[in-house]
Amino acid sequence: MPYTGIVKYHVKLSFDVDGLVERADIIGAIFGQTEGLLGPEMNLNELQRVSKVGRIEVTTTSTENTTNGNVLLPMSTDVDTCALISAAIESIDKVGPFDCSFKLDAIDDVRASKKEDIVRRAKEIKQKWSTKSVSEGDTMLKDVHESIAGKVTTYGPNKLPCSTGVFDSPWIILVEGRADILNLLRAGFDNALAINGATIDESIKEMCKSKKKIVAFLDGDRAGGSTILLFAPSDPNTTVQIDINKLFFKHDRTVTTTYANSPNDLKEALSLIAEKKIPVADMITHRIALDEIQYGFDLVQNGLESLKVIVEPNRNGTN
């Protein structure tokens, strides 16, 4: 009868016979000498009939006058039955006319082995597909980054960084550097121009003449000081190497940080302003003409008399 049970355990035994015997002799001794030892329900013939024991596998190796080898019993019983059957086989002392001995080597839990195989395979699957997912994610992020970077160009003879929308937009945003332009692009604004320094380039003044409104997003920090201000957001996991000896002992610099708006903060703030949910007009302390723009930056830098300074290109200069 073909074996149809689900294998739970592999019972493994080794044997030594003081004579030359065949594989069939070993199987015959196992069935014949264990019959009736444990009751009719424990006979190997009965266990095979009810699919509790599978096909018994025997391997033999013969020398000049001895035989040794291994026996494998696939079983779908509980481990207690496996132990009883193993003990019964170990009690066999004859194969034909020859003395012999059987010894249990192991009772392997096939399900545990399968679990190990499943876990190992699951790790392989996870590694393969998670790596693929990360790779696809990195590609997507790269595509997004390149789409943003592609909207950054330069303006004027000094090649000031700007987003491509500054040329057609009726208003522009003045910022400090390229990183600010990228942040505004992520927030949905493509009309930013970087001043790239503490003074206003003449080309910026020319650009501002053609615009209805100029918004300045600039810090009031003083150029040429002894403080290094960290404010621009970086990519995740970015590290900066600092020579402590040169920075602190040779040049006596101070490193400090400040709050920087995230792209979401900036987008939300501009949306609130556009929807007139915040009375920003009350925050404007100065309105200046385009030819007074340097005076406006001086006000912002000084920070004592001003809160927000608005540049109105068509306004007459009155300070």
Structure commentary:
This protein has 319 residues and is of the alpha/beta class. The chain has 2 domains: 9-113, LOR/SDH bifunctional enzyme, conserved domain (Alpha-Beta Plaits, 2-Layer Sandwich), CATH 3.30.70; 148-312, no CATH class. It is 36% helix and 24% strand. The protein contains 9 helices and 14 strands. The strands form 5 sheets. A 5-stranded antiparallel beta sheet has the order 2-3-1-5-4. The longest helix has 40 residues, at 110-149. The model has no long low-confidence stretch (mean pLDDT 80).
Q: Domains counted in the coordinates: how many?
A: 2
Q: How would you characterize the largest beta sheet?
A: 5 strands, antiparallel
Radius of gyration: 43 Å
Helical amount: 25-40%
Mean pLDDT figure: 80
Q: What is the count of helical runs? A: 9
